[in-house]
Structure formats: structure tokens, C-alpha cells
Amino acid sequence: MDMAYKILVVDDDNNLAEFFSEGLIKEGYEVAVANDGEEALEKVEKEKPDIVILDLMMPKLNGFEVLLKMRQKYKKWIPVIISSAEKDMVSVKKAYDMEADHYLTKPCGLDTVLKGVRIMISLIPLRAQEGQ
Questions:
Q1: What is the dihedral sign for C-alpha 49, 24, 82, 35?
Q2: Entry pTM
Q3: 75-85 tens-digit pLDDT
Q4: Using one digit for the tens of pLDDT, what is the confidence trace for 33-46?
Q5: Domain extents for the chain?
């Protein structure tokens, strides 16, 4: 890996956020963590992550609200992987309608998260071309 991609892990479950972070760091990624929706938006602004792993059910702002605000605010595409215990098709469809890039249902193992991250990284150059 030439450059370390920065990943923002957003989850109100500290143990899960730490588990994902440690696994991503071991794989050579830079990681930032946020534990609620407001903090997530602050970290997106400050840390400029390449990818966001976003929980849906959180205090202050839920994942849908965070996703909506990100898509409204940023011209540059930031891939968003939803990681949620919400398995119903309504939530999944809503996430994709709101331009989420990938949807993982919890509980999901680290290998599933890493696979999702690799897919998003492979799409970054394509998204950059689209934006020109």
C-alpha cells in the first residue's frame, strides 16, 4: 500500500468501534473514531477520511442524518459503508437511496469489514473520474 487510507469508524458501541479500529490499523490503515452522529460530522470535517464506516442507530444524529449531511456538504465523494443491526429491507433500501456505497449487517466479522473497505478503495479512482 503506497499511502495509508484513512478510515473513520462511527459507532456508539465503544467495544465494536475499538475492535474495528484495531483490525483496520493492523491492516495498515489510519483510523479515526466517532461515537455519535455529531462527532462523526466533526471528524469528517477535521480528519478528511477516505472512507466512513457508519452505524445507523446512534445518539444525537443517526446514521441516515449523518449520511444526508455528508452528501449535501461534500462535493468530493467519500465512500460510506453502513454497518448496522437493521436487517430489514426498508433500512437497506433507504441507505442505498441516500447514496450509501455498501451495507453490512451486524454482527459482521472483521474480514467482512476489510473486504468492504477494499472494495471501496478499488472504487475511489472510478469515482474520481466521474467527478471530473
A1: negative
A2: 0.93
A3: 888 999 999 99
A4: 999 999 999 999 99
A5: 6-122
Map residue 5 onto helix, strand or coil: coil
Is residue 83 within 8 A of residue 38, CB to CB? The reply is no
Rounded Cα distance between 130 and 107, Å, is 33
Sign of CA dihedral 7, 107, 35, 95: positive
Q: Helix, strand, or coil here: 112?
A: helix
Residue 122 grid coordinates: 478499488
Fold annotation for 6-122: Rossmann fold (3.40.50)
In angstroms, the CA 87 to CA 104 distance is 9
Spatial contact of 34 and 43, defined as CB atoms under 8 Å apart: yes
Cβ 51 vs Cβ 23: under 8 Å: no
